[in-house]
C-alpha cells in the first residue's frame, strides 16, 4: 500500500479546516435571497446543489479549489475521478447560476464564472478519454447517465443566460460547444448508439414538465449531431428528434401552447442559417411568413432553410400570377407524364392513367410541385447517396392524405427508407393538394396537386 507522508496529511487537515470555515462564513455574503424562478427556468436546486457557497468572484475562492484538489488527490479509481470531476463541473454551473442571480450586470463576474466552468469541462473530457472501460461497466453506465442529465440542465442554463446577456453570446456558445464535445466523446467511444439514444431520451423525460421541454431537447440534440462522425449515432439522434417533434405536434393539436412557446420556437428557428441549414430540424407549424423572393413559407424556419430573408410575418400579398401563394420557388418548366396507360375499370369504362416520375437527390425532390389528374400514379426514384422515405404530411404522423392503410396512417407512405436506385409508386385517387416530405429528413418537402 502506498504510504502517505505525514506532511501531506497535515496539509490536508489544515486545508479542509480552512476551506470549511471560510466556506461557511463567506457563503452567507454571497447567498442573497432571490425570487423563485419560473417553472421554465433552471434553478440551483435543479442542479442538485443546496448552496453553491463561495463564488469565483470571492477573493477566498482559492480555498474552495484547494479543497477540491485535495479530494481529487485522494480519489484513485479512474471512474471515480471522472465522477468527481463531473460533480465539480456541476458545482461550477451552480456557481454561474448564482453569479447570474446576484450580479446580473457584472460582465466581468459572468465571464469569470464561464471561464471557470469551461476549464473544468476540459478536465472532465480528459478524464473520460482516459477511461478504458465502456458503458458495459455498471459504474461507467451510472456515470454516463448522470453526465447526460447534468449536461442537458447546463445547456438550458446557458440558453437562459444567452437570452438575458446577448453581449456575451459568443462566449456562452463556446462553452456550450465544449460540453457538447464531451457528449460526443461518450457517443463515439464509450456508448453504443442505441444506448446513447436511450440515455438522452431518459434525460429528456426527467426534465421539468413545461411547454418548451421538447423544443429545447431538439435544440440540444441538434448540437450533438453537428460534429458526430458515426452514421449510426446520427440515425438514433434523428429518431429521438422525431419523437420529440411528435410530442410537440400533440401539444399543438391539444391547443395547450401559449405565446411563450411560439416565441421560443422563433428563437430556435433563428439558428437556421448558412452551411448548417441542411442539418436543421424545422417543426411543421403553420405560421406563414413572406420571403424576400415574394414566396410564402410555412414558417421562418423553412424560409431559413431556403436561405431566403423574411420580409414580414404573414402570407405574401396575392399577385396577379398567384406565384406568391406557392410555398417554395420552383422552376417554371413544362412538365409532362412519363407514360400514359389506357385501360378499363371494373365497370368497363375507359380509364386514362398517367405515370409521373419524381427523382430524389441529396438536395430534395426534383419536382417541388406536381399537378396530375385523379387516378394518375407518381413514381419516386432515389438518385441520391442517402436513404429517402417519401410520405404524406404531416411529419411524423403521415395522416393528411385521406386514404388509410399505410404503416403509420395514410396509404401515401413508402413505409421505409428507399436506398439508392429503389422506387416507390403511388396512385392518387383523391382530388386535392397533398403535401409530402422525406420522413428521414423532414426539411425536404413537395406537393402533389390532384385535379
Please tell me the total number of domains: 3
Amino- and carboxy-terminal Cα gap: 85 Å
Major sheet attributes:
5 strands, mixed
Estimate the strand proportion.
5-15%
Poorly predicted regions: 1-39, 271-281, 319-352
Q: Into which percent range does the helicity of residues fall?
A: 40-55%
Short description:
With 451 residues, the protein is α+β, with helices and mostly antiparallel strands.
Which features characterize this protein?
single chain; 451 residues; alpha+beta; Wheat Germ Agglutinin (Isolectin 2), domain 1; Immunoglobulin-like; 3 domains; 4-stranded mixed sheet; elongated; disordered N terminus
Please explain how this structure is put together.
The chain is of the alpha+beta class. The protein folds into three domains: 6-191; 286-325, Wheat Germ Agglutinin (Isolectin 2), domain 1 (2-Layer Sandwich), CATH 3.30.60; 339-450, Cupredoxins -  blue copper proteins (Immunoglobulin-like), CATH 2.60.40. It is 45% helix and 14% strand. It has helices at 6-30, 61-73, 78-102, 107-129, 138-164, 169-190, 193-205, 213-226, 231-254, 259-269, 300-305; strands at 289-291, 296-297, 310-313, 339-344, 350-361, 364-365, 369-372, 377-382, 390-392, 423-427, 432-438, 441-450. Strands 4, 5, 6, 8 and 10 form a five-stranded mixed β-sheet that branches. β11 and β12 form a beta hairpin.
Amino acid at each position: 500500500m502506498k504510504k502517505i507522508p505525514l506532511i501531506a496529511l497535515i496539509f490536508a487537515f489544515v486545508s479542509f479546516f480552512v476551506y470549511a470555515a471560510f466556506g461557511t462564513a463567506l457563503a452567507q455574503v454571497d447567498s442573497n435571497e432571490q425570487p423563485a424562478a419560473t417553472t421554465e427556468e433552471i434553478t440551483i436546486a435543479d442542479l442538485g446543489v443546496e448552496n453553491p457557497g463561495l463564488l469565483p468572484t470571492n477573493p477566498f475562492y482559492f480555498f474552495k479549489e484547494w479543497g477540491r484538489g485535495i479530494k481529487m488527490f485522494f480519489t484513485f479509481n479512474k471512474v471515480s475521478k471522472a465522477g468527481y470531476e463531473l460533480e465539480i463541473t456541476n458545482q461550477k454551473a451552480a456557481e454561474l447560476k448564482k453569479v447570474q442571480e446576484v450580479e446580473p450586470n457584472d460582465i466581468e463576474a459572468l465571464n469569470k464564472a464561464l471561464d471557470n466552468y469551461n476549464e473544468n469541462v476540459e478536465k472532465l473530457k480528459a478524464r473520460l478519454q482516459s477511461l478504458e472501460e465502456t458503458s458495459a461497466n455498471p459504474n461507467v453506465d451510472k456515470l454516463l447517465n448522470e453526465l447526460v442529465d447534468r449536461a442537458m440542465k447546463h445547456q438550458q442554463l446557458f440558453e437562459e443566460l444567452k437570452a438575458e446577456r446577448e453581449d456575451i453570446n459568443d462566449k456562452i456558445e463556446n462553452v456550450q460547444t465544449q460540453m457538447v464535445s464531451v457528449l460526443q466523446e461518450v457517443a463515439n467511444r464509450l456508448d453504443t448508439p442505441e444506448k446513447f439514444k436511450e440515455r438522452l431520451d431518459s434525460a429528456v423525460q426527467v426534465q421539468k414538465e413545461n411547454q418548451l421541454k421538447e423544443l429545447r431537447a431538439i435544440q440540444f440534440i441538434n448540437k450533438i449531431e453537428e460534429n458526430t462522425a458515426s452514421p449510426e449515432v446520427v440515425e438514433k439522434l434523428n429518431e429521438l428528434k422525431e419523437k420529440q417533434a411528435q410530442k410537440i405536434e400533440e401539444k399543438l393539436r391539444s391547443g395547450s401552447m401559449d405565446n411563450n412557446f411560439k416565441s421560443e420556437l422563433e428563437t430556435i428557428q433563428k439558428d437556421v442559417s448558412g452551411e448548417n441549414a441542411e442539418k436543421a430540424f424545422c417543426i411543421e407549424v403553420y405560421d406563414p411568413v413572406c420571403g424576400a423572393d415574394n414566396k410564402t413559407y410555412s414558417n421562418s424556419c423553412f424560409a431559413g432553410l431556403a436561405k431566403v430573408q423574411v420580409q414580414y410575418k404573414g402570407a405574401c400579398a396575392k399577385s396577379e400570377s398567384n406565384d406568391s401563394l406557392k410555398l417554395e420557388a420552383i422552376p417554371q418548366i413544362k412538365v409532362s407524364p412519363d407514360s400514359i396507360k389506357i385501360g378499363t375499370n371494373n365497370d368497363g369504362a375507359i380509364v386514362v392513367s398517367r405515370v409521373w416520375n419524381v427523382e430524389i437527390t441529396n438536395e430534395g425532390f426534383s419536382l417541388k410541385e406536381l399537378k396530375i389528374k385523379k387516378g394518375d400514379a407518381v413514381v419516386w426514384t432515389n438518385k441520391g447517396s442517402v436513404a429517402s422515405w417519401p410520405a404524406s404530411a404531416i411529419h411524423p404522423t403521415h395522416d393528411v392524405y385521406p386514404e388509410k392503410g399505410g404503416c403509420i396512417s395514410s396509404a401515401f407512405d413508402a413505409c421505409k427508407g428507399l436506398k439508392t436506385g429503389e422506387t416507390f409508386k403511388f396512385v392518387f385517387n383523391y382530388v386535392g393538394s397533398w403535401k409530402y416530405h422525406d420522413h428521414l429528413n423532414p426539411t425536404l418537402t413537395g406537393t402533389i396537386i390532384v385535379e
